[in-house]
What we know:
By secondary structure, the protein is α+β, with helices and mostly antiparallel strands. Strand 13, helix 8 and strand 14 form a beta-alpha-beta unit. Helix 9 packs parallel to helix 10.
Amino acid sequence: MFLTSSVLLSSLLFLGVLCTPLTPRWDDLVEKHAWAEIPPGWEYHSTPSPDHVFEMRIGLKQDKIDQLISMLYEISDPSHASYGNHLSKEETDALVAPHPDSVESVETWLLHHNINAEDATFRSSAGEWLTFPVTVAQAEAMLGAKYQVYRHTASSSYVVRTLSYSLPRHLHGHVDLIAPTTYFGTMRSMKATNFIQGFVDTDEEDPIDLNDFLNPLAVPPASCATAITPSCLKILYNTVNYTPQAANRNTLGVAGYLDEFANRADLQTFFRTFLPAAVGANFTTVRVANGGDDQNDPGVEANLDIQYTEGMSFPTPNIYYSTGGSPPFIPDSQTPTNTNEPYLDWLNFIMAQSTVPQTFTTSYGDDEQTVPSDYATSVCNLFAQLGARGSSVLFSSGDFGVGGGDCRTNDGTNTVLFQPAFPASCPFVTAVGGTININPETAVSFSGGGFSRLFSTPSYQAAAVANYTARIGTQFAGLFNAAGRAYPDVAAQGQNFRVILGGRTISVGGTSASSPTVAGVISLLNDFRLANGQSSLGFLNPLIYANPQGFNDITSGRNPGCGTNGFSALAGWDPVTGLGTPDFLKLQTIVS
């Protein structure tokens, strides 16, 4: 039996269609992220001009990110043969570079919308981040979104955001994140984890002579119970007898936001008052995303951070990264504006550097529920990359206990739940809680702590966390995610810090004080290792959970919030003070 010519032709055409790759349907949009309602603290303000231009940032899927995270755990595990073998920038780039298919798909999609990828204003060295200017009209067509101008009621800052966005079905496997879209956090809406406790007359305080406290078993003087200075912290955490030896190789970085500027004159006054040996030492300011350095406008957070990182690590070089915010929103402006994505701006800058500081501290955060999961995951993975390159990344755990405000969820159900903080809840950072009092230290009531609802419990802390949750039984059942990444990891003093601001001494509290304190101790440990020809510590958590004996266990205190008394500090790890406060001498033995 023979096919007629028309049937044969039809068959060949059908086979040809099957053999020809299908062109993606760029109008087949599938939702990527959406909010049920306007995020708390924000209100609708107006509709932007369709011609308003902003910088759109695309995060392409990182082809071998799982391999990078696996390697991160190996090089951070003190029992693994690869411990300390950190990756170079080039090795990191090779693991996070997007697959060629992802690059081709995204660039084809952009061309469909008359955007040439070659016109990008920023492209990361690995190619996984791409930034280019778009109009509101273009962005809405690309993402099936409706952008509006929203106002943050507490700070009166304005952003152009959307309550939902979508991507072509074909791109969901190639794109991790588009920004700005549904993440409303801005420089000015982020929470600096500090609060001023008042002005102080330093003439009423007795200076501390560290020569009287050289014995590691020495107890800090009674004055440290009401006034924390670098001397108090050096005695408490056993760094009195250590002098840095690798200042030519070791660096400590402070991430600054919110137009907060660290003041050099105030630092010298701080040194003259509390650490005379350091007078004349200074720090370097690096400006990121048009960050400023206004020496006539000292910031509480910036001064607190730099005065205590310098105070703990002197003479180790310190770098203050001043990350800029966005200019005021002008509805009719056609000038590209900063996307105002604080962590991405800073991290993209840091990861582009050939060398990075061995220790970082950051004292800012958001409620985790305000951060879209795609954004949180992308930022968290960037912290993993930083750890893989040999940096220890510390974050304050927050100042609202188990949660601030009414603790209602923003998913439309208004359910009251404990509210974890981000980035403290990222498993690739070391979160620092707060303590108060001396001999013994106890948990300070505002110490942020809890369990992530985005990230699962990492293996390095599984046993410690299981021990705690077993001990509290059904207490707070349903209010927290017992299977989530738990924090804080460690703690330090968090109240009554003496800080110089505008030439005057003030008292400051918050885990903003705790994080730079621990960062100073970690920087000294990095100095010790580098001086002995070893690598920096890098990502800390696998090491510290395997060696809890390096910390002073805090066993009393609570972190109330959400209408409850909060979690209790117990023997072992707890979600108030983590493993406890650092003992430099014990940790020095552990890392040697």
